[in-house]
Amino acid sequence: MNPDECPMCDAGVIARYRVNATGESIQVCDECDSVWEETDELPGPATATVEQFLTVRGLPLLWSQLSALA
Ligand SMILES: [Zn+2]
């Protein structure tokens, strides 16, 4: 299995993003918006979705809150 393939939806690709407001690095599926902590081992269950992740931190539900990391 491709390690970048999403174990939640089996369709998306997981990429790293930085949360602009907090400086946190996270891993996000581009298909189902699942979120993993930077240190989470994949494949494994996602800890949240992008929406949940931003809501918990009181941030707007916008992709512009995240910056793609190379
Ligand atoms: Zn996915």
UniProtKB/TrEMBL annotation:
It comes from the Bacteria. This is Transcription factor zinc-finger domain-containing protein. It comes from Kocuria dechangensis. The lineage of its organism: Bacteria, Bacillati, Actinomycetota, Actinomycetes, Micrococcales.
